[in-house]
Amino acid sequence: MYATPETGDGWITANLDTHDEGFLVTARFAISQPFRKLVGGRESDLLFAARSRLARLGINILPVGTPHLEGGHCEMQLRIVAAIKSYGIGAHLERILVPGLRVGRLVFCPTDNRLKSAELHRLIRDNVLQVPAGFSLDGNGYLILRPQRQVFRFQKPLTPEEVTAIATHADGKDLLNRLQVRESVDHIELPPRDGVVTACSMFLHRHYVVLRNLDESLGVHLQATVLDPITTRGTNIYLEFINRTEQLIINPSVAASVHDAIRLAPRPSYWHGRHLARPDPRETSGEPACQALLAVFDRLEATPVRDRYSHRMMAVTQDPYGLLDGAAPERIWTQPQTPRDPRGGTDLAAGPVAEGLELDTHAESGTQILAELPDGARATLLLGYFPNLIEHTEICTAALRQRIARIVFRRASFEHGPFLSARDHGRLADYEGLGLEVFWCNEARGHVVRHVFRGLRGYFTTPDKVDQFRSCLIFAIYGSTKRLNDQATSQVRRLLENLRGLFGSEIGILTGGGPGAMQQVTDAAHALGLMVGSSFIETIDQEPNKSADFYQTFQARSRQARQRWFEIASFHLFLVGGVGTLEEIGLTLTDMKLGVIENSPVVFFDGAGDGFYWKGLRTQLDEMAEQGRLPAWLLDHVLMTTDPDAIPHFYKQALRLG
Fold this sequence. Notes:
By secondary structure, the protein is of the alpha+beta class.
């Protein structure tokens, strides 16, 4: 994994002054010891980079003076102005510029890790770095970037509530993506004393880019000036320009320096929470760890079942590592509690509710043991089953008081085996928000996996693959449970080779995880050394594969919700499939139309050599477009082909890559 040498987002601490030139504020940035050691007294190489969402609102945040590092923090003054007048954000600035607002980060940009022109040209030529079409390289090593011919405008003037939500809420960028719409233009016009938001396509894997305002006559880019190797992978890499002159500027551009990112070693993280002197991920997350942990669960669950619903074992320990040596947990609950009426309002999620059960059936919940823990204990909670509603509420309460730090569960569901419900996925999001680590001792797969979020969606993966999962470029590949013929299998392998050739080896694929074509794609990707993920669904015709590097599970009634987990993919490819694939096509195209996912290229591929499977869909899409039932731009993002060698060219053309 590669990362930009930067701090986390700093925040406003005080508003010092307000006048015609904007607001003067102080901001504070938390400085970690490794970051301070990296800077090593070279504070002059620190660059302030404003938050992208604020720049997209037309807000420019300029540093005043130099950063002042002291202890574990850095203090800095910033001037904040509404730079794009036509957006009308100036009237809302006073409302949002309050202490606590996150404004941007400090980035370490030394000249010694900056690439020269010849090296940049080699990286672009070898597809190690993908940059916008029409780029130039000057003799000083600057990459000249020209945006795509599109601008972003707001559908209507923003309300104070909308501006506040965009600037301050965790999901404010999603609201911004819905309100700020793209418009294709013949030329980008940058009016005098105003600005415009546009975009380009770029894919960074091992480098970060710093935008530099060298020639104001071609426009000035706002202070959101650093593109990092994790988030800069897509079709909408936003660029925000302003015109400080009295003359119209056509087709602005910006210079950029390219720097080597920092290579990060995988972070050790284990279910027992203890870092060993010489950690071996295979021993801490693979079959030996799984079997040892299962033995602990077996020992703790060795009490008689008291009723028709299997008891929900729950135990708390301060030192989970000792459990492997036979130590007893400090607290354990295995006995039924006070009977309650199972017809209450929380039964569907909380207890053994099924038609025909007796009224004295126990709705079991052992989470009262959490009340016995002291605040700040940061203990480990072991669960026989993933938490139900009653357990979830009490776990959240304990997490807020830092009584527990991690959850280790054995089984996903009593009724549905390894498949989680929509409610369960909501609970996992709550645990992430509360800072709880969640581990699954997955007996069927013989390993211990950690739940990791990538954006808004979480998957399970072994601790040694966490960083790779978070950073790889992902392609969603859909297909049938029926096997492909030999020619199609060979063509799919060629397709994957082409993807690796275009974007490098740090890519992954995501499938539905079933048999047939999905398993064949999985096998081909693994043979090429690519990361493979699966989004398993509870159906009678799909036996989940056992070879996915990261995965998530969904109960049958969560079929359409499952599609949301494919949002982590940057690209979508459809192989020959049936009714299920047809549904996924509809959901994907609808998401693109509504702006839920990026307007990225969509490929329909048939390599079987027996006619063309997608010709009927092609006719249907053409008819929908002719009747105005499909946005015309959507068809520009679609390729239907039998030739795997046509796909890289289509990607470069659709993404306008150089």
